[in-house]
Amino acid sequence: MAISVELAIRELQKRNCEKSLAAFAKACWHIVEPTTPYKHGWHIDAICEHLEAVTRGDISNLVINIPPRHMKSLLVAVLWPVWSWTTDPSARWLFSSYAQSLSIRDSLKCRRILESSWYKSMWPHVQLVTDQNQKARFENTATGYRVSTSVGGAATGEGGRYIVCDDPLKVGDSGSEKIREQVLQWWTEEMST
User: FRET label pair with 119: which of 15, 127, 159, 184, CA 20 to 30 Å apart?
Assistant: First the structure.
């Protein structure tokens, strides 16, 4: 009897996580931030609702502009792609940031979730392929992938259903018109194509 109750609770959590990015974020928080308590806020709901709308195709372009340390990168560049794979593992993602190291940091956190026993037990249909499992690029058996690059970095020939740029400028470079123009040119000529 206890096993059936546990299975029912697990199935309920699984369905809830598949329907709600915010619920997914809370459920897997312990994997990406094991020493930091999860603190929910209205801004998390707002970001998640907008990302869910992008996933459904209701929004095609989205800008999220909030202060640092409010979970923007974690929600957008880490949790959103692995959440989307729970129901559509064929989704393809291209991520960038002003620094390759930030894109790779988030890629590693994605893989940490995907390779966790929690995620594997909940969504066993999402499996990484062994011949393309690198820090900057990994793929799954349903042909979905996540590629990391940097502003100005290689993106030609890549693509995806979701093209994401998290922090295209360093704070110190935001005042430079020349650097802003370079980023806009890169976005317009390379990333957006």
Answer: 159
SS3 state at 166: coil
pLDDT digits (tens, 9 = 90+) for 89-142: 999 999 999 988 899 999 999 999 999 999 999 999 999 998 877 888 999 999
pTM of the predicted model, to two decimals? 0.90
147 sits in the region (left: phi over 0; alpha: psi -120 to 50; else beta) called beta
Phi/psi of residue 35, nearest 5 degrees: -105, 0
Q: What's the token pair of residue 78?
A: 């880490």
Other CB atoms within 10 A of residue 187 CB: 17
Q: Which tokens hold the place of 20?
A: 């709600």
Report the distance separating Cα 83 and Cα 69, nearest Å: 21
